[in-house]
Write a structure and sequence with these properties.
Strand content: 15-25%
Largest sheet: 8 strands, mixed
Strand order of the largest sheet: 3-4-2-1-7-9-10-8
CATH class of the largest domain: Alpha Beta
Oligomer: single chain
Helix content: 40-55%
Structural class: alpha/beta
Bound molecules: adenosine-5'-diphosphate, aspartic acid, magnesium ion
Number of helices: 15
Number of strands: 16
CATH architecture of the largest domain: 3-Layer(aba) Sandwich
Number of domains: 2
Distance between the termini: 42 Å
CATH topology of the largest domain: Carbamate kinase
Shape: globular
Length: about 450
């Protein structure tokens, strides 16, 4: 069997869902389990609804939700016509929107928004899209059955970025999904959403449907995980920044994971781990051009010094400087334990005898972290930074690559540079407003100019 995940734009409207149905029909012999995102733009709209409701703008917020209701109901009518099936799905959709409105009202009374409430609201996107898609499939001759993903995606209670519990997921998948496959059915589940063992709704973090697909794939021992999106595959850079970006036909797991965590939004950064554990190849395909080759992600693509370039903003550079570090073991450990305690993941690191520089993503917990770091020395913080990374499994094999990268950046200021001997990733910290320019220069040097 395979897992096929369709992102927001692949289920964004009636035409997109029709295309998705024909892709799934073509894959019936491979026994697909289908994972879908919310209709494009829905999660953003829901988060906005939650924030506004809690901020006392409930009436305004409700208008946004009514627009979402109209949009979903229009898709139901366009896809399913006006028979009894359509009426049933439309009624279910309406019930979900009524619940949402009540939730918003409760938030506005409370005037407070906890991570748990945010997840409850955000989850409606996939709770709505998945039964609509399942019904559309069924009406088009695909033996689809909707499965509530929250019965299968069991997570801890870290709302907003819940950690999946693999053993419980495997067991739930055997109970709720496998029997359907054995009956020749096509299970359809929402991505991104899950629930704790107590049944409280959680989410895996933005873009998390890719991760859901990989986790379901690992739980069911899929022979492939397919990520269907709006670009031809993983490219040598984000095509929105670099239109000349080229398709990568084959890439290694570790390279894809690095690219994802350094800004290649086409894949959620956690997607690769479950696939690696089970050696399941991951494919990225374009749902607008299903015949195109796509990208294959496996353990063994040929080693290249540079496979692709990625970048992202919103990075904070923290520097801790203290002469007490000189010859004193354990100071660095102390500094990192502060980040660990606040569960903040450190990305790039550079050290000297008397200072440690690290980058982290901008985060609300930062101020508290800084207070604790001051115990170790003088702390300076530069917000609004960006990361650019060049990624390639053979990066460390090829000395001139680093010189070429720095030369390509020319006069752009580099605040931190990290590369280790075994690295597959050269990370450069630049000013946030220079990220795109840095990506363009690096891409030009490595992919657009003759080597
Ligand atoms: P989906 O809704 O299908 O999950 P996303 O918007 O999350 O789609 O991811 C697809 C987008 O990722 C593309 O439209 C593209 O702009 C962006 N992207 C960023 N980096 C890359 C890259 N290296 N290769 C392909 N796409 C990329
Ligand atoms: N709908 C969720 C989001 O927009 C999850 C996803 O699309 O992967 O973040
Ligand atoms: Mg995505």
């Amino acid at each position: 069997m395979i897992v096929a995940k369709f992102g927001g734009t692949s289920v964004g409207d009636t035409a997109a869902i029709e295309r998705t149905a024909s892709i799934v029909r073509g894959r019936l012999p491979r026994r697909p389990v289908v994972v879908v995102s919310a209709l494009a733009g829905t999660t953003n709209a829901l988060l906005d609804f939650a924030a506004r409701s809690a901020a006392g703008q409930f009436i305004d917020a409700l208008r946004g939700v009514e627009a979402l209701r109209e949009r979903h109901l229009a898709v139901v009518t366009e896809l399913l016509g006006s028979g009894s099936d359509a009426a049933e799905v439309a009624a279910d959709v309406s019930v979900l929107f009524d619940e949402l409105a009540h939730l918003g009202e409760a938030l506005s009374v409370l005037g407070d928004l906890s991570p748990r409430s945010v997840d409850a609201v955000a989850a409606y996107g996939e709770r709505l899209s998945s039964p609509i898609v399942a019904a559309a499939f069924a009406q088009r001759g695909i033996p689809a059955v909707w499965v509530d993903a929250r019965k299968v995606m069991i997570t801890d209670a870290e709302y907003g970025k819940a950690q999946p519990q693999s053993a419980s997921i495997a067991e739930a998948a055997r109970r709720h999904v496998l029997p359907l496959l054995h009956e020749g059915k096509v299970p359809v589940l929402g991505g991104y959403i899950g629930a704790t063992t107590e049944g409280v709704t959680t989410t895996l973090g933005r873009g998390g449907s890719d991760y859901s697909a990989a986790l379901f794939g690992a739980a069911l021992d899929a022979e492939a995980i397919e990520i269907w999106t709006d670009v031809d595959g993983m490219l040598t850079a984000d095509p929105r920044v670099i239109p000349a970006a080229r398709l990568i036909e084959h890439i290694r797991f570790d390279e894809a994971a690095e690219l994802a965590s350094f800004g290649a939004k086409v894949l959620h950064p956690s997607t690769i781990a479950p696939a690696v554990q089970r050696s399941i190849p991951v494919f990225i395909f374009n749902s607008h051009r299903p015949e195109a080759a796509g990208t294959r992600i496996t353990a063994d693509a040929p080693r290249l010094s540079v496979r692709a370039v990625a970048g992202r903003g919103n990075v904070v550079l923290v520097n801790v400087k203290s002469s007490a570090m000189l010859g004193t073991p354990g100071v660095v450990r102390g500094i990192f334990s502060v980040f660990e305690r606040f569960k903040l993941s450190v990305d790039a690191i550079a050290t000297s005898e008397v200072s440690v520089s690290v980058t982290i993503d901008a985060d609300v917990r930062l101020d508290a972290v800084l207070t604790e770091l001051r115990a170790f020395g003088e702390v300076t913080v530069t917000r609004g930074q960006g990361t650019v990374a060049i990624v390639g499994a053979g990066l460390g094999d090829h000395t001139p690559t680093m010189a070429r990268a720095l030369a390509a950046l020319g006069e752009l200021r580099v605040h931190l540079c990290a590369l280790s001997a075994s690295a597959i990733n050269l990370t450069l910290i630049v000013d946030g407003d220079q990220v795109h320019e840095a990506m363009r220069r690096l891409h030009r040097a490595f992919f657009e100019e003759a080597a």
